[in-house]
Design brief:
16% strand; 7-stranded mixed sheet; 7 strands; alpha/beta
Length: 296
């Protein structure tokens, strides 16, 4: 593999990922803020990187983001710090830990709790959500959607005028309360508390779209059986020809393993895989896994 020039080699890994196109500027800044505890040092590193490559649109955007959100660095760290990384690593106890963690995180910042790279900015979160809305719209008209891990309801509310029936599901009571607050007055939208690995409350064929935005990683973290069961449950509640969209499979840092696992679980559950981990978004590095429920 070709080594980067010395100037790039000296960059922090978070900024280097941005220069290589591996991380959009909002993601790069979020990671840098979490890695570097001193705000002044974050700003210095970004300024030096931008000055060293004045023709780079990524570095220009990164510098603009850092300047605009320097007052939000503490909020980013506080929201991330609200998530408990030391408790049970798998099983139902891990699911309960995630629920409690996101109760804590949503109290710090509703927007940052579901998308840390939004810096807690509602406008920036809406822009990132719009990219997902466009992905859903490209599938064509839908009659009923289940949003697994709906968080504060950002996607469900954004799609409420396009899809007649939407059910949002989340394990965090705090997230559910915030989503219900935002859903007031939106017809056909229901927010429920529950876990994505148990969809038994819903009848077979109840939906023609199931979507999981950044929630599948927590099922993988709880253990492979939880992730496998999600695919089985999603297949059951989907009508034949219905779509399953998983945006980010895990946080394991191994895209090839994610592709293998999703393909394996999807095939066992009766899905045909149409997309397997491509990253089409400009504001977020989410990987898209699209599966279609086979007849029968």
């Amino acid at each position: 593999m070709t080594r980067p020039p010395p100037r790039q080699a000296a960059l922090p890994a978070e900024i280097l990922a941005c220069t290589r196109g591996d991380a959009p500027p909002p993601i790069a800044l979020m990671r840098l803020v979490l890695a570097v505890p001193d705000d002044g040092e974050v700003l210095r590193l970004v300024a030096e990187a931008a000055a060293a490559d004045p023709g780079s649109p990524e570095m220009s955007e990164l510098a603009s983001l850092a300047a605009a959100h320097r007052g939000d660095f503490g909020l980013i760290r506080a929201t991330a710090g609200a998530v408990d990384h030391e408790g049970p690593a798998d099983g139902e106890a891990a699911i309960r830990r995630f629920a409690a963690s996101y109760d804590n995180a949503v109290r710090v910042s509703p927007e940052a709790s579901v998308a840390l790279y939004s810096m807690g900015d509602p406008t920036r979160l809406a822009a990132a959500t719009a990219e997902v809305v466009d992905l859903v719209a490209a599938l064509g008209p839908r009659r009923a959607m289940l949003d697994v891990g709906c968080g504060i309801g950002r996607l469900a509310t954004a799609l409420a005028d396009r899809i007649p029936r939407i059910v949002g599901l989340d394990i965090s009571p705090g997230m559910v309360a915030e989503a219900r607050r935002r859903a007031v007055g939106l017809e056909g939208l229901e927010i429920l508390e529950g876990s994505g690995h148990d969809l038994s409350r819903f009848p077979a064929g109840a939906f023609d779209l199931v979507i999981a935005v950044d929630s599948m990683p927590y099922l993988f973290a709880a253990g492979e059986p939880f992730a496998a069961r999600f695919f089985q449950e999603a297949a059951r509640v989907l009508a034949a020809g219905g779509d399953l969209l998983v945006l980010n499979a895990s946080y394991r840092g191994d895209p090839e393993r994610d592709r293998r696992d999703v393909a394996r679980f999807a095939a066992a559950a009766g899905f045909d895989v149409r997309r397997l981990g491509d990253r089409p978004f400009r504001l977020w590095n989410g990987a898209v896994f699209h599966c279609v429920r086979r007849p029968g």
